[in-house]
Structure to design on (822 residues):
């Protein structure tokens, strides 16, 4: 037996890569270049040797802070470019590498220039808005005023230009300062104040004026024809022109304060029509000049942003990489001489040569007199788990990792899930019409793979794109299972020849069960289309799918147990093989493996035996004669033997292993206090430099704790064997539900609508059928089958052998740095 086990393969392809703990001693002058080259290689995961220090206490904290500040400036430029609506494609020619200090100075100069232009543009925009509001007030308020030379309100103020030069731009003094200087007024006559206010504040503004003046005012308002841009938000705001007539200086003071509180801008409007026209001409002239100035400023600003935008992508990549390099350098320690940096990390064993070559190249390129010292260390902790994946297997690996990362060198369930996952999905979803729809969606994602991989997708679309190969395999398996079920949108077809049944006489259409007779060999592939519409269709499909679900479930659970054997053999745990794997295989197959055998024999022989009765009375009356339920000779003694084996397997799982562990511990630590004992006896012989040497924390040997743990594990397996087998019946339930839903939509929607001669009813029926198929059968049912297949893999399959308590290998790699890691 031992020789046979030794000849079995080691499943190297099914396990994670072998990892090595290495130490780097890097001279200071070549440290930056060495870490940069390692980031380009992406095969070394550094350990943080300064975990007890805060980020501000680390050696390169200032450089990280500088990179963070440059990242902020680059994000500022990106926001400004997006706000301006510019599309700056990066230059295709290769730009020379730029030093971090030079880039920092360039970014500071560009930021200062853009901020100055923004400030000047905002001031000009504010002046332009005031002039535009003044023009609107002059146009609208004149309708409320009656010109009278005899009753002049006062000396109307002319618009004076008060300009001065500031950095080459023209700035205008505030119109409120120019125009609101009080002049001689009529102390006893009616007076007015005109202005403009946001439309959403108008109602509250009018109420406040009414209360403040106690109704002693006349309020007129009209909507502005033009929207005005708010400089702070760059949004167009709708405004309303108002004129308030009042009497008295006290009322004027109150109204002006209310206007100031509500953000209303007041502008003086002369009553004389001639002066109004003159003032309007002056305002229009200045508006024209300001528009030209604003356009020139915008062009200049866009040119500056374009010059930044051409190199923005490269600069962001450079800064992101530099920040990652300094973050990694902060994980290294200075040696006592302060001339070398010491680092530790994990790398795959196959990558040691590549890392050594990269470090040699870094030493040469940095003109360092001392090379980097690279050597293997003794492992002091459990290594990370690293699986090399490709486009096809990556999505399946992510599905497994969502449950738990495999322990180092543990059998990887993702290898088997590439086939079993889409197949179990297809068993529940089997319809080759719906499978073709899924296939078209997957082919679309694959055809646009190169384009979509460079775009920023939404969360839902990103999830679909990431699982494009999963969808492809699910579609192909769904087509295969749909051909077995012979369902195309629930309609059967004679794809593989004619039916094996024919009508006995002319009344066969009314007698489904006895009117059809079998006249030739069975239908060559899948379900015979004659079952469709027969009285026994549902009982037949129920029996078929239920038994098939049990067979698939027992097969997958046995695969899980076999993988547990290979795990135990790989880690050298003979106790797990003798006292877990063997009794578990005996218990599972004595009961449910025997049930699977009965199902196959019944299918092959065409027996009418009741398997429910056989399995129930196997426990209740094992010695009773089976009678018509006997499927083969010697069935009753075989059942008794299997039942005894199942009963023996339970204590076999429970008692020997804890006592064997206790015996090993007593022999190894005779005469000493209780020492360390892991989950298997191999842990007692662990070499100091082995990869599993530090994988388990030291705990005192506690026999009662180990016994209780084994008791829980045994009870869980015994009860789980029953519940897990029943759980696989979801394959039958969901397959039946999908088939019946598809039948209802086809018969009660499409065929019902097609029975009418009205073309409108037919079109409505087609639309409802298409909507139900797309959103219920192709979306909701797909998601439902996907989640149920996920459950069967995570619990029923992986629960038999998968520990999932490892941690992922996360190498320092520039390719893995995302835009958010800044």
């Amino acid at each position: 037996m031992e020789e046979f086990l030794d000849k079995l393969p080691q499943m190297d392809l099914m396990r994670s890569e072998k990892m090595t703990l290495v130490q780097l001693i890097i001279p200071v002058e070549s440290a930056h270049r060495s870490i940069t080259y390692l980031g380009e290689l992406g095969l070394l995961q550094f350990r943080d040797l300064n975990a007890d220090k805060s980020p501000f206490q680390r050696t390169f904290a200032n450089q990280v802070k500088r990179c963070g500040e440059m990242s902020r400036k680059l994000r500022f430029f990106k926001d400004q470019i997006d706000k301006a609506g510019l599309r700056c494609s990066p230059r295709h020619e290769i730009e020379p590498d730029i030093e971090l200090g030079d880039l920092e100075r360039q970014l500071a100069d560009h930021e200062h220039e853009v901020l100055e232009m923004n400030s000047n543009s905002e001031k000009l925009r504010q002046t332009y808005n005031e002039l535009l509001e003044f023009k609107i007030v002059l146009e609208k308020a004149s309708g409320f005023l009656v010109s009278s030379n005899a009753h002049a309100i006062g000396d109307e103020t002319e618009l004076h230009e008060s300009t001065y030069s500031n950095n080459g731009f023209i700035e205008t003094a505030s119109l409120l300062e120019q125009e609101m200087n009080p002049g001689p007024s009529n102390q006893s006559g009616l007076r007015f104040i005109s202005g403009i206010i946001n439309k959403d504040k108008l109602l509250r503004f009018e109420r406040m004026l009414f209360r403040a003046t106690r109704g002693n005012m006349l309020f007129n308002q009209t909507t502005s024809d033009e929207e005005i841009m708010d400089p702070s938000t760059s949004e167009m705001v709708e405004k309303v022109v108002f004129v308030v007539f009042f009497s008295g200086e006290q009322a004027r003071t109150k109204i002006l304060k209310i206007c100031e509180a509500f953000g209303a801008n007041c502008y003086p409007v002369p009553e004389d029509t001639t002066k109004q026209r003159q003032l309007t001409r002056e305002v229009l002239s200045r508006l024209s000049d300001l528009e030209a100035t604003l356009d020139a400023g915008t062009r200049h600003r866009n040119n500056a942003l374009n010059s930044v935008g051409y190199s923005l992508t490269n600069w962001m990549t450079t800064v992101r990489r530099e920040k990652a390099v300094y973050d990694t350098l902060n994980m290294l320690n200075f040696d006592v001489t302060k001339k070398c940096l010491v680092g530790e990390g994990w790398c795959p064993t196959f990558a040691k040569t590549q890392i050594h070559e990269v470090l040699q190249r870094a030493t040469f390129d940095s003109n360092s007199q001392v090379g980097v010292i690279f050597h293997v260390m003794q492992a002091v902790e459990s290594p990370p788990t690293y699986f090399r994946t490709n486009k096809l297997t990556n999505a399946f690996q992510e599905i497994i990792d969502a449950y738990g990362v495999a322990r180092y060198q543990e059998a990887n369930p993702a290898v088997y899930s590439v086939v079993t996952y889409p197949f179990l999905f297809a068993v529940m979803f089997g319809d080759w019409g719906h499978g073709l729809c899924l296939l078209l969606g997957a082919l679309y994602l694959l055809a646009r793979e190169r384009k979509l991989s460079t775009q920023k997708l939404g969360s839902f679309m990103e999830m679909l794109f990431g699982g494009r190969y999963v969808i492809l395999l699910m579609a192909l398996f769904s087509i295969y299972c749909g051909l077995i079920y012979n369902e195309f949108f629930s309609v059967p077809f004679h794809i593989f020849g004619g039916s094996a049944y024919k009508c006995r006489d002319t009344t066969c259409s009314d007698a489904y069960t006895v009117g059809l007779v079998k006249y030739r060999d069975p239908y060559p592939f899948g379900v015979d289309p004659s079952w469709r519409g027969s009285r026994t269709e549902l009982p037949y499909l129920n029996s078929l799918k239920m038994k098939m679900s049990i067979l698939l479930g027992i097969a997958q659970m046995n695969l899980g147990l076999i993988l547990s054997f290979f795990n135990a053999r790989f880690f050298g745990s003979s106790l797990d093989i003798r006292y877990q794997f063997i009794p578990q295989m005996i218990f599972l197959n004595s009961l449910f493996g025997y049930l699977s055998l009965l199902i196959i024999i019944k299918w092959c022989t065409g027996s009418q035996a009741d398997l429910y009765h056989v399995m129930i009375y196997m426990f209740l009356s094992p010695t009773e004669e089976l009678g018509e339920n006997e499927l083969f000779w010697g069935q009753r003694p075989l059942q008794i033997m299997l039942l005894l084996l199942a009963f023996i397997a339970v204590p076999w799982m429970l008692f020997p292993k804890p006592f064997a562990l206790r015996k090993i511990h007593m022999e190894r630590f005779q005469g000493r206090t209780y020492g360390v004992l892991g989950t298997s006896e191999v842990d007692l012989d662990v070499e100091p430099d082995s990869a599993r040497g530090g994988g388990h924390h030291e705990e005192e040997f506690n026999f009662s704790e180990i016994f209780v743990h084994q008791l829980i594990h045994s009870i869980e397996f015994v009860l789980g064997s029953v519940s897990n087998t029943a759980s696989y019946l979801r394959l039958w339930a969901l397959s039946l539900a999908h088939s019946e839903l598809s039948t209802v939509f086809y018969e009660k929607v499409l065929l019902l609508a097609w029975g009418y001669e009205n073309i409108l009813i037919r079109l409505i029926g087609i639309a409802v059928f298409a909507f139900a198929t797309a959103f219920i059968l192709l979306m909701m049912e797909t998601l439902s089958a996907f989640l149920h297949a996920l459950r069967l893999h995570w619990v029923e399959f992986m629960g038999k052998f998968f520990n999932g308590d490892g941690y992922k290998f996360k190498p320092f790699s520039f390719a893995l740095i995302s835009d958010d890691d800044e």
User: Anything to note?
Assistant: Residues 146-188, 673-698 have pLDDT under 50 and may be disordered. The chain has 23 helices and 15 strands. The longest strand covers residues 19-27.
